[in-house]
Design goal:
The complex is a heterodimer of chains A (about 425) and B (about 550).
Chain A (H helix, E strand, L loop, with lengths): L2 H15 L16 H7 L4 H10 L7 E5 L6 H15 L4 E6 L6 H12 L4 H9 L7 H4 L27 H15 L4 E6 L6 H10 L1 H4 L4 E6 L8 H4 L6 E4 L5 H15 L19 H10 L4 H17 L7 H19 L3 H13 L2 E2 L5 H6 L5 H13 L3 E3 L7 E4 L15
Parallel strand pairs in A: 1-4, 1-5, 2-3, 3-4
Antiparallel strand pairs in A: 6-8, 7-8
Chain B lengths: L14 H17 L3 H10 L6 H15 L4 H19 L6 H18 L6 H17 L5 H18 L6 H17 L5 H18 L6 H17 L5 H18 L6 H17 L5 H18 L6 H22 L3 H16 L5 H21 L2 H17 L7 H21 L3 H16 L4 H17 L3 H17 L3 H17 L3 H17 L3 H26 L1
Helix pairs in contact in B: 1-2, 1-4, 3-5, 4-5, 5-6, 6-7, 6-8, 7-8, 8-9, 8-10, 9-10, 10-11, 10-12, 11-12, 12-13, 12-14, 13-14, 14-15, 14-16, 15-16, 16-17, 17-18, 18-19, 18-20, 19-20, 20-21, 20-22, 21-22, 22-23, 23-24
The chains are: A alpha/beta (about 425), B mainly alpha (about 550).
Chain lengths: ~425, ~550
């Protein structure tokens, strides 16, 4: 055994100390195995019902799932698909994250062709685009770790591709072939719609109207930052259902914590919220405090969960006591800031946000803007959204203004944290 | 021992050039400097006025002057100076090269005509060198003008008013021209220096004794007053008009058609910008003067001056169109500018000015006809002007600001016409460009237009953000009109989103400001929105009771 081997064992033993096989939290639901997702997916009953109601009809439908970044859109999408796979064996379900620089028809074509590994024509389409012809889902590597890199989703690494000349026609042909084999229909799920710039997304949607009204079911997701929020109004006729995902309430978050923990706990898979053993290694009070800190936002929940469990493991603790949780949450802010790798301007906006407590298009002053070197809120909006993406800020639920506040975490003790620079 | 047979010989063969210069000097002597004959000589030897002559000139001078008697050396210097004079006034051949040859010839002549030995000739050659540097094309214009000023000042060390009053006056006039055009230093101070120099010149150049020189200096003085920065602009323009009118007493169409046309053109410029008197009659006067000038500056005979005059006339017509709110003048202006642009050399100051004027005329015509083609063309014209002009050009700023402003108008138009993708992109471009500029009002306007575009597209959230951005900036600038319209926009959006009370608060403020501004139409418009919101609230309350 080497020295490093010892450290590995120690590390594993620290996690075991907490009664867990592994740290169950992950920022990227696409990394999860179906079985795991099934166990940890929590809540969204109303939304699932709305979606599945549509699936009881023969009519093909278009569904847009939208909500703030990190709200759990991808997980929701994957959950819907995994249910369909179980309940509708003769329905083909496909999933893809919208690659940059690609139109929707080409994207849909890739997603569909990748699922049709036995169809030679489909594979040839992929081949011509320079895409490996095995299924993408099988290629995914697990990225579950305490320091998982944000946004490292599959789909991007296969690019760039040579776009087919007539993607809409190719897609239509492929759909026809797919339908022969899958009489219950074809579902194409395209995630991360607005990874591309907002005006391009508008154009993409505009161009894809024909395709979207064609032979397949479409499930799309996007977060309404920047201009894309207004996509909902401008393209309102395009979707049969526009589903907004909101923050989870506290009981649901609590239940979600239980589900996550039970999926990794050794010899204890209780899921009853009334039973304190179900939140171990958390104590009921620290579990609740933790859930509150995560603001009902699944990605923040996962990020913080990672930080908290890693901290507890480092301290070789058996339980997450209030003290340990506080320490971990204090670590969280510098850790999130460090992960975000903010540039100078983003950092200046972050500091101003911290000083002011909140910033909105309604209340920000000219002096504040000038301090940042700007004259309009619309110029600093991208920076605020970047902070939101990095879980350093969140958008307040205010309908008549765009307002941001820092994620309420206890200030770090460490004098060298970025706050004090 | 040095290796032989490799590389190029360092000595330039100057046999042909020596021969040419000898022939030229013979011609100058024999013709007694009659320009006509010398011009003929140049005309038939045009191909010899080339770069190799420029390169060989110093060697030729050495060959011709080495080991010669002082008298011969003086003669050679005199002939070189005469060559300089003749070639820099040449109206054909390569102007750039002609001026370089002139400068080289003067500098060589100055080697013999030193200040100590031949002060008077030294002074006149310095003066001529100054003229050549003023016109020089090669090199930095700023540096060339500094050289010109330096040369004139040297000349004035000998040409004192007491000893050489006429030459003194001539050099003062030239110095005035150089200061008028000067790029380095404060422009305001340079123009004061120019005016001072012209006034000195006029002390000697009286109408009685030197009518022609008096007229030219009056014209130049008029130009300096037109451009003057210090003092009241209105008074300066009156002074300019007075000076031009004096010049025209001598410069009659019959005797001096070209100078008459130049002064008519200058007088027109002054009337176009005149502040005193009726604006419309000043513009009429300007248009008449430009038209007079164009009788001499025809496209065939003076293509460049024709183009310049047309461009200025177009500007006057555009200004008149704004006063009379008719588009006929704009149609004429646009046609004139397009014709002028066909003649102007691409990249010349005239060409750039005409593009800018074309942009203005087209965007004004758009206000009449609402034809987006005009806006698109305007945009292209502004862009062309900007691409061609150097970043430090002092007109750049105004064009640079006109561009994003037009972009935002065009953007708004496209959005309304349903080309929202292109329209919004133009608007956002203009907002981005203006956000870094030093015209916050134009920035505020572009933000407002972007808000409107979003509103047209029912992008309520973004409309609200941009209206609030515009409002904040208008408030910062204390621009009441802007505050009123952005509050009206914001109020409308808030009402559309169902935030009725908040929206009504904005609408009420807007209505009040429009009231203050005495704009009853706007008051009515905002009020009807307010009333609609009021009714919506009443309906809601009624529903609650039901």
């Amino acid at each position: 055994m080497t020295y490093a081997d010892d450290i590995f064992d120690q590390s594993f033993s620290n996690i075991k100390h907490l009664g867990l096989r592994e740290i169950p939290f992950t920022e990227s639901p696409t990394d999860l195995q179906n079985e795991t997702l099934k166990r940890i997916f929590t809540g969204r009953e109303k939304e699932l019902r709305q979606v599945f109601n549509l699936f009881q009809s023969r009519e093909r439908r278009r569904i847009l799932v939208y909500g703030r970044i990190g709200i759990g859109k991808s997980a929701f999408l994957l959950e819907v698909l995994s249910v369909l796979r179980r309940k509708r064996p003769k329905m083909l379900t496909t999933y893809i994250s919208l690659p940059s620089e690609l139109d929707l028809a080409t994207t849909a074509l890739i997603a569909l062709a990748q699922e049709m590994s036995e169809d030679e024509w489909a594979q040839r389409q992929l081949y011509q685009m320079g895409i490996p012809t095995a299924k993408v889902l099988k290629e995914r590597s697990s990225e579950i770790s305490a320091n998982a890199v944000v946004g490292a989703k599959t789909g991007e690494k296969d690019l760039p591709v040579t776009k087919p000349q007539y993607p809409t026609v190719s897609l239509d042909i492929l759909l026809e072939r797919a339908q022969q084999k899958y009489p219950q229909g074809v579902v194409i799920a395209i995630d991360d719609l607005d990874k591309q710039n907002p005006s391009r997304v508008r154009q993409l949607m505009h161009d894809a109207q024909g395709m979207l009204k064609g032979r397949a079911w479409f499930l799309l997701t996007g977060h309404p930052t920047g201009m894309t929020g207004d996509l909902l109004t401008s393209e309102r006729g395009l979707f049969d259902l526009q589903l907004k995902l909101e923050e989870l309430d506290l009981p649901t978050t609590y239940q979600m914590l239980i589900n996550y923990l039970s999926s990794a706990r050794i010899n204890n898979d209780c899921t009853d919220p009334e039973n304190p053993r179900c939140v171990l290694p958390f104590l009921p009070e620290t579990a609740e405090r933790f859930c509150r800190a995560s603001l009902g936002k699944p990605r923040l929940f996962n990020r913080l969960g990672n930080i908290v469990l890693s901290k507890a493991a480092d301290l070789q603790a058996e339980r997450i006591t209030p003290d340990i949780l506080e320490q971990a949450l204090k670590d969280a802010k510098p850790e999130l800031t460090q992960q975000a790798a903010l540039d100078v301007q983003e950092e200046r906006v972050r500091v101003l946000l911290q000083q002011r407590g909140s910033l909105s298009d309604e209340t920000i002053s000219m002096a504040d803007l000038e301090q940042l070197g700007f004259r309009s809120f619309s110029e600093i909006l991208p920076f605020l959204e970047r902070l939101e993406e990095a879980d350093l800020a969140y958008q307040l639920n205010q309908d008549d203004a765009k307002a941001f506040a820092p994620i309420p975490l206890p200030p770090a003790n460490d004098a060298s944290s970025p706050e004090n620079i | 021992m040095a290796k032989r047979g490799f590389g190029k010989s360092t000595t330039v063969s100057t046999r042909d050039e020596v021969k040419f210069m000898r022939a030229l000097m013979r011609c100058i002597v024999e013709s007694r400097q009659d320009p006509k004959q010398v011009h003929q000589f140049f005309q038939s030897n045009l191909e010899k006025l080339d770069e190799s002559l420029l390169e060989a000139l110093p060697l030729v001078f050495i060959k011709l002057t080495t080991n010669e008697l002082p008298k011969t050396r003086q003669n050679i210097a005199r002939l070189f100076a005469a060559f300089g004079n003749l070639i820099q006034q040449l109206s054909f051949g390569n102007r750039l090269l002609n001026l370089e040859l002139g400068i080289a010839a003067y500098n060589l002549a100055l080697q013999v005509r030193t200040r100590e030995d031949f002060p008077e000739q030294w002074a006149i050659t310095q003066n001529n060198l100054g003229i050549a540097y003023s016109d020089r094309i090669l090199g930095e214009r700023a540096t060339n003008l500094e050289q010109a000023i330096a040369a004139y000042n040297l000349a004035l060390q000998v040409y004192t008013r007491e000893d050489f009053p006429e030459q003194w006056a001539g050099t003062q006039n030239n110095l005035g021209n150089a200061y008028s055009a000067r790029i380095l230093g404060e422009r305001a101070t340079n123009l004061e220096q120019a005016i001072a120099a012209y006034n000195l010149a006029l002390q000697v150049y009286t109408r009685e004794d030197f009518p022609e020189q008096w007229a030219v200096t009056q014209n130049n003085l008029g130009n300096a007053y037109s451009a003057r920065i210090l003092g009241e602009r209105a008074t300066n323009l009156e002074q300019a008009i007075a000076a031009y009118n004096l010049a025209l007493q001598v410069y009659t169409r019959e005797d001096f058609p070209e100078q008459w046309a130049v002064t008519q053109h200058n007088l027109a410029n002054a009337y176009r910008d005149r502040i005193q008197g009726e604006r419309i009659s000043n513009l009429e006067q300007a248009i008449t003067n430009y038209e007079q000038a164009s009788q001499v500056f025809t496209q065939d005979v003076f293509p460049q001056k024709w183009a310049e005059n047309q461009g200025h006339l177009a500007e006057a017509l555009t200004k008149r169109a704004l006063l009379t709110s008719t588009s006929a003048d704009l149609d004429t202006a646009i046609a004139l500018l397009k014709a002028a642009l066909n003649v102007s050399v691409s990249g010349s100051p005239d060409f750039i000015d005409s593009q800018y004027r074309l942009g203005n005329a087209l965007s004004h015509r758009y206000e009449h006809n609402k034809d987006p083609n005009d806006l698109e063309q305007a945009l292209r014209a502004y862009k062309t002007a900007l691409d061609l002009m150097s970043p430090e050009h002092y007109d750049r700023k105004k064009i640079w600001q006109a561009l994003p402003t037009t972009q935002s108008i065009l953007g708004m138009r496209l959005v309304r016409d349903g080309q929202w993708q292109e329209g919004l992109q133009l608007l956002l471009n203009s907002v981005t460009q203006l956000s870094t500029g030093d015209d916050p009002l134009a920035h505020a306007n572009a933000l407002f237009q972007t808000g409107r575009a979003h509103e047209v597209l029912s992008n309520w959230d973004n409309a609200r953000i941009y209206y609030r951005d515009a409002l904040r900036l208008y408030e910062h600038l204390s621009d009441l009109q802007g505050i009123a319209k952005s509050r009206a926009g914001l109020g409308g959006v808030l009402v559309s989103q169902g935030h009725l009370e908040k929206g009504m608060t904005e609408l009420a403020v807007s209505r009040e400001i429009y009231h203050q501004l005495k704009q009853p139409d706007q008051v009515t418009e905002v009020d009807s929105l307010y009333q609609a919101a009021q009714r919506a609230i009443e309906r809601q309350t009624a529903e609650v009771f039901v």
